[in-house]
Amino acid sequence: MTSPFQHSAAERDAAPQFVLPLVVRIERDAPPARTDALETAARAVLTLLSDERATAEDGEWTQAVRDWEDARIRKVVRRARGAEWRRAEALPGITVTGRTAEVRVYPPVPLDGWPKDLARLQVSGTELDDRGPVPPPEAGVPVLWMNPEVTMSAGKAMAQAGHGAQLAWWELGAPGRAAWRSAGFPLAVRTPASRVWTRLASTPALPVVRDAGFTEIPPGTPTVIASYP
C-alpha cells in the first residue's frame, strides 16, 4: 500500500523501508475465527495510529511511524503460541482482543531490523476458518470489504484489513477520528458478492487498497474497499 505523504513512486521506494509488525496468537487447541482475526488486526492498526506514543510530537513511537508512513505502508502478520506469544507480549507494543482473537501490534521497525523474538516467528501459511455463517455487519459501522475474487492466507488478509482501516483513518478529519476512537473502533470485515464488489469498486469516493505485490498476489491487485458512514 502506498503512503499519502509522498506521491512520487521513486521517492517512496528510495526512502528507507519500514514495516509494521503484527502478531496473532494461534494456540493449537483454540485458534481464532478468521473474520474476528481480520477485524482485530484492523482495530490493532487503528489503536496504534491513535496512540499518544505515536501521535505526540515527542512520542516514543512518533518518528518511527512518520518514517514508515513516508515510504510504502508495509504490514506483516506473524503467528505465535505458548512461550512464543509470551515473549512477543514482553516487547513494547499493544495487544488488542476480539471475541476469539488476540493481536499484538508494534511500532514500525526497519525492514531488515525485526526484533529477534519476532523475526523467528512464522509468517507464511497462516490459515484460519470461521466456525459458522458470518452475520451481516451492524448498521452504521465502517466496513472493510475484501475482494471476493482474490484468495489470500489469513495472515495476508489480516494485513490487508489493516491497510483498509488505515485508509479509512486517513480519510477522516479530527472529529471523526476522535469519535471512532472513543467508540472503540467498531468495524466489520466482510466479503461481498462479486456484483456488490463491482458496485463498490465503481464508487470513486471509497478508498481502495492496491497491494504492492510483495507476497501472494500480483502488484496492483485491489484487495479491500473501505466504506464508512
UniProtKB/TrEMBL annotation:
Its EC number is 3.1.1.29. The keyword Hydrolase applies. Gene3D superfamilies: Bit1 (3.40.1490.10). It comes from the Bacteria. It catalyses: an N-acyl-L-alpha-aminoacyl-tRNA + H2O = an N-acyl-L-amino acid + a tRNA + H(+). This is peptidyl-tRNA hydrolase. Pfam families: PTH2. Keywords: Hydrolase. One of its GO terms (molecular function) is peptidyl-tRNA hydrolase activity. The lineage of its organism: Bacteria, Bacillati, Actinomycetota, Actinomycetes, Kitasatosporales. InterPro entries: Pep_tRNA_hydro_II_dom_sf, PTH2.
